[in-house]
């Protein structure tokens, strides 16, 4: 990546002679002297224009007095004294004028960055639609249409969720140095260049520039001294199997290793992830620098299709193409960012058009939208109002999964009046009566999300199936602790030695529920894993278990614990990081540090409700319920619909001898967050303990219908029906419980007692 504008807050990066020290950033003009073709391709690309100084050349929006009204808040866009100015509602709720410092992005929308106190750059949530008028563009619009985002809301343009220094900077400038001062709650953010320039991808270039100056004419690439070598390996995609019609890689690189550095470099900004080290160490594996999100509910559908704003990496990891060795630059020219071919011709470079770009394959009229490869294999989802992004899983349409687990399918996007069952039968008719869809990991992840009776079996099978994508297997491992038992344990233990660090990391994290001594035996080796994300998972799991480690393992643990704390402090500007540290210190038995971190979170954001709830829980353990009560009441004043605060206050009221109030708060929490089974279970227990047995059982029965494998619910139902004399009903639940957990002695004791009562 090459030429980009220098920022007014750039670091001092003056090219100079090479030294034996670490490579330095030299700037894209240095690169341009030897790479004019790449420079020209990069000029004007989305990477080059990812962030620019706001001027007549970069600003696309209408600043000629244009007005935009949203929920009675009027924003006016102006030019004044050569500057671009927005008059809008500030953090205090009053209208004020704010200078535009930088443009942010270019297509299909452009945002604007406004400086605020403390070195913050804030992304205005009124964006310019840069599409042409015929596509509905050339207008101002809200990124939160239909919502009134109040000034005290973190999503307000002046709030922490719109702070560029944390949310966006890493991927829009080169050589970011966030420079957050926690003591002052201030940023002194610096960078080498605005935009994604050469060194944003290739790393600091001083050593490479020195190599280029001494290189003899006609010499090969050799050891180019690039920190991150992203040149395409020797070889090509060749059509070796014409009947199959799919190209295979011909070259020295193995399919798994090919392009690993390239995909990792792109993942830094094209993944839903959080950084775990600062400053960014160029050339390291992705999981040594970032922790990617798994296929969790709310971010991905159960079959891995994109749902939340997750970008491309997570879906690409699932694809058969990636497993075959396809990399980003096979389809995308990396400097201009253009696709290497238009339309179906791009896919035709590896998929024989005679076989795949024909009605015999796609079953749609030639030239129609249904005949486009991307329509079926890369369905799009729109984010930020106008930005349609394609799923990079390259999966085949699966209307059968729409029927069984409720995932979307691209057929429904075009045939809106037709059912998924119709689409499934249509596809079956194309392929003949013997056709059946391939097994999918969707059923296992769906079972885990819904706590189905066969969830443990399905998740364990997925977790140990090395033919499935690593990110899906890691997700299965992350779900398995909810279904403890021998099958889950065996799958977790197998995952600890997996070749994929994402799987290893998830397997280590899944040891959480084991007794300390078992955790120590299994997780301790991971403290020396070559990949940082795995070591961090081990340190987190072993917090509180240091005494169960050998002397050498304690040294490893202390080292990994330091890494873990440092990884959280990468985001020291966020209250969530201090909440994470508080939870860590609580497990380490350091209550003073726990309280300190929670209070730091509230200092950064006085309205951060999770810290208030956690403080109340800390005070409960210390016998300070009165102090905790004040925080819970404050939390509910700030966020009246916080289910977590309602739940905690309900438990507090029960402890205070005010059961009616407590049950009422617990009921509200369960109703507010029906997705958190624990809230419903505790509410039912409270009902039963206050003499409302019928209501309690009704709540539990409803929970059981939604989550059939929830063992707490099954135990409660078996126990409560037994106490009411309904032995047959109780025994049914106890039998299910033992079937789920045959090695659980408490479950067997309960079942055996009921069998004796039933005379069996």
* Overall shape: globular
- Tell me the β content: 5-15%
The helix/strand class is: alpha+beta
Q: How many separate helices?
A: 35
Low-pLDDT stretches are 1-19
Q: Whole-number average pLDDT? A: 93
Say how many strands there are.
Answer: 20
Describe this structure in words.
- The structure is a single chain.
- The chain is 43% helix and 10% strand.
- With 760 residues, the protein is an alpha+beta fold.
- The strands form seven sheets. Strands 1, 6, 7, 8, 9 and 10 form a six-stranded antiparallel β-sheet that branches.
- The longest helix is centred in the C-terminal third of the chain and has 19 residues.
List the helices and strands and how they pair.
Elements (H helix, E strand, L loop, with lengths): L27 H5 L3 H7 L8 E3 L12 E5 L2 E8 L2 E7 L5 E5 L2 E3 L4 E8 L3 E4 L2 E4 L9 E4 L21 H4 L5 E2 L5 E2 L4 E2 L5 E2 L3 H5 L3 H9 L21 E3 L9 E3 L9 H8 L5 E3 L14 E3 L20 H6 L1 H5 L3 H4 L12 H5 L4 H4 L2 H4 L10 H5 L2 E4 L3 E4 L8 H7 L4 H5 L5 H12 L10 H9 L4 H9 L6 H10 L6 H10 L5 H9 L6 H8 L8 H11 L8 H19 L5 H13 L3 H14 L4 H13 L3 H14 L4 H13 L3 H14 L4 H13 L3 H14 L4 H13 L3 H14 L4 H13 L3
Helix pairs in contact: 14-16, 17-18, 17-19, 18-19, 18-20, 19-21, 20-21, 21-23, 23-24, 25-26, 26-27, 27-28, 27-29, 28-29, 29-30, 30-31, 31-32, 32-33, 33-34, 34-35
Q: What's a concise summary of this model?
A:
The chain is an alpha+beta fold and 760 residues long.
Pick out its properties.
760 residues; alpha+beta; six-stranded antiparallel β-sheet; 20 strands; disordered N terminus
């Amino acid at each position: 990546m090459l030429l980009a504008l220098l920022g007014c807050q750039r670091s001092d990066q003056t090219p100079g002679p090479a030294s034996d020290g670490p490579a330095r950033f030299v700037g894209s003009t240095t690169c341009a002297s030897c790479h004019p073709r790449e420079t020209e391709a990069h000029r004007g690309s989305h990477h080059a224009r990812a962030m620019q100084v706001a001027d007549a050349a970069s600003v696309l929006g209408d600043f000629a007095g244009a007005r935009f009204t949203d929920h009675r808040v009027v924003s006016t866009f102006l030019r004044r004294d050569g500057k671009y100015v927005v008059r809008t509602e500030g953090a205090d709720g009053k209208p004020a004028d704010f200078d535009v410092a930088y443009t942010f992005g270019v297509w299909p929308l452009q945002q604007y960055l406004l400086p605020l106190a403390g070195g913050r750059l804030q992304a205005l949530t009124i964006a310019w639609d840069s599409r042409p008028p015929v596509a509905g563009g050339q207008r101002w619009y809200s990124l939160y249409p239909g919502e009134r985002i109040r000034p005290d809301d973190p999503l307000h343009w002046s709030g922490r969720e719109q702070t560029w220094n944390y949310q966006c900077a890493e991927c829009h400038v080169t050589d970011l140095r966030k420079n957050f001062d926690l003591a002052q709650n201030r940023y002194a953010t610096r960078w080498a260049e605005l935009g994604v320039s050469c060194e944003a991808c290739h790393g600091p270039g001083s050593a490479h520039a020195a190599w280029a100056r001494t290189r003899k004419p006609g010499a090969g690439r050799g050891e180019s001294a690039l920190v991150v070598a992203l040149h395409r390996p020797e070889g090509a995609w060749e059509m070796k199997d014409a009947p199959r019609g799919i190209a295979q890689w011909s070259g020295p690189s193995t399919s798994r290793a090919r392009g690993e550095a390239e995909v990792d470099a792109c993942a830094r900004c094209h993944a839903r992830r959080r950084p775990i080290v600062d400053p960014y160490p160029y050339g390291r594996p992705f999981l040594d620098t970032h922790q990617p999100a798994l296929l969790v509910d709310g971010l991905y559908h159960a079959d891995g299709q994109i749902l939340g704003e997750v970008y491309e990496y997570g879906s690409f990891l699932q694809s058969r193409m990636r497993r075959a060795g396809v990399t980003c630059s096979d389809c995308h020219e990396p400097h201009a960012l253009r696709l290497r071919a238009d339309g179906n011709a791009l896919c035709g470079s590896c998929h024989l058009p005679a076989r795949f770009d024909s009605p015999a394959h796609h079953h749609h009229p030639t030239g129609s939208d249904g005949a486009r490869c991307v329509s079926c294999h890369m369905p799009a989802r729109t984010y930020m109002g106008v930005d349609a992004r394609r799923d990079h899983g390259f999966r085949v349409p699966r209307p059968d999964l729409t029927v069984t687990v409720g995932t979307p399918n691209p057929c429904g996007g075009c045939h809106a009046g037709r059912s998924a069952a119709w689409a499934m039968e249509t596809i079956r008719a194309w392929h003949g009566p013997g056709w059946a869809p391939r097994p999918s990991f969707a059923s296992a992840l769906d079972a885990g999300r819904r706590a189905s009776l066969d969830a443990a079996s399905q998740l364990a099978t997925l977790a140990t199936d090395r033919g499935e994508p690593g990110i899906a297997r890691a997700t299965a491992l992350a779900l398995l602790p909810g279904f403890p038992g021998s099958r889950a344990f065996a799958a977790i233990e197998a995952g600890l030695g997996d070749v994929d660090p994402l799987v290893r990391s998830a397997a280590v994290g899944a040891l959480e529920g084991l007794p300390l001594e078992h955790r120590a035996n299994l997780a301790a080796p991971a403290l020396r894993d070559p990949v940082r994300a795995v070591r961090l998972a081990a340190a987190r799991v072993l917090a509180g278990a240091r005494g169960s480690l050998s002397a050498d393992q304690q040294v490893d643990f202390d080292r990994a614990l330091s890494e873990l704390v440092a990884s959280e402090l990468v985001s020291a500007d966020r209250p969530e990081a201090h909440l994470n540290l508080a939870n860590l210190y609580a497990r380490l038995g350091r209550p003073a540090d726990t309280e300190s971190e929670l209070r730091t979170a509230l200092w950064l954001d006085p309205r951060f409700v999770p810290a208030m709830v956690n403080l109340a829980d800390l005070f409960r353990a210390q016998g300070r319920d009165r102090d905790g009560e004040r925080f819970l009441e404050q939390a509910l004043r700030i966020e009246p619909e916080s289910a977590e605060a309602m739940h905690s206050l309900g438990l507090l009221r029960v402890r205070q001898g005010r059961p009616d109030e407590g049950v009422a708060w617990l009921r509200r929490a369960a109703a507010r967050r029906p997705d958190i089974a624990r809230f419903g279970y505790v509410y039912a227990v409270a009902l039963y303990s206050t003499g409302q047995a019928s209501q309690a059982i009704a709540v539990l029965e409803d929970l059981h219908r939604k989550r059939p494998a929830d063992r707490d619910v099954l135990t409660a139902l078996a126990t409560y029906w037994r106490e009411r004399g309904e032995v047959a009903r109780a025994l049914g639940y106890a039998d299910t419980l033992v079937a789920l957990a045959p090695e659980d002695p408490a479950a067997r004791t309960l079942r055996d007692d009921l069998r004796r009562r039933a005379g069996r």
